[in-house]
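User: Please predict structures.

Assistant: First:
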Amino acid sequence: MKNIVLTGFMGTGKTAVGRELSRLLNMGLIDVDTEIEKSQEMTINEIFKKFGEPRFREIETEMIKKVSENKNVIISTGGGAVLKQENMGAMRKNGVIVCLMATPETILKRTSHNSNRPLLQVENPFGRVKELLNYRRPFYEKADIMIGTDDKTPLQIAEEIIKEISIRE
């Protein structure tokens, strides 16, 4: 089976859905952000603060290329991974790209308790979410499959992804 690559904005459920897919399909799970933190020996927040977003994106691209070489795994990416065509090419090589979508209200509700979101450490997080979503939408829409996650459990979303992939095979 091809890799299943989960993309989408922060708070759309990539991590939780990745766990469900891994369990249901008995496939390994690789979280790109976790792999970056391990390789850099610092948190994503610390990387942003110390080196800035451009350097983080370079590290992210290196990691995406590396993990995309795997086969038969679920790969959960960071929300901005789709911004580089190079990343999309690497992810698509061995995988089907699934974009998880949610409304700004849902995203803010899901992320408001987490201070480890460097792009939301601003005065108006709701406005920032809307701005980033609008900018990234065309990139997200390059995914093979788009799945809405509002008012759904990770299990429901995982089952929907499995159904969509099986229809395409």
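Second:
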Amino acid sequence: MKGGKLIIFSAPSGSGKTTIVRYLLEQPELNLAFSVSATSRPRRGKEKQGVHYYFMSVSEFKKNIKEGNFLEWEEVYRDNFYGTLMSEVERLWSEGKNVIFDIDVAGGLRIKRKYPEQALAVFVKPPSVDELKIRLKKRSTESDDKINMRIAKASVEMATAPQFDKIIKNYKLDVALKEAHRLVAEFVGVEQDSSKPEDE
């Protein structure tokens, strides 16, 4: 499997990685395309096939695992699978793009291990677990039990940070965005524009 670069952003839930990835996708000079994950969970609301996820039945997902079609996959809860299809990465590479992932810590490290030279793995670190709890509560999208589960998982995930190539501390979003842009631009070989204002 040859092609462009792989840029992996991983972090505990609520660290701001999705905001950073969205920002980077809007920078045309980086030539990035987003890798859409596959999942066995049911579609929610206005989610579209191939846009938000590739939706599959559990048996279809297991068949793809057996056939070795995933770059990485994980059973998050019983029969609730998420994964990255090899064909999705190859499709984006064939379009001449560098592929960016917004992915959990375990999946991010698996991709990095498979492509040590082609991948840049970045861990987004929140100021603290307490701050993470505040951010998750502000979202008002989940029950306290679910938030506590995420916080427990976050403590474990924070311990994996040293296994990543780079760590971005997301204490101030504008600083984190600038740092993320610098790291990715360097990795994909884009000239840094010194005329860009230091503070947007």
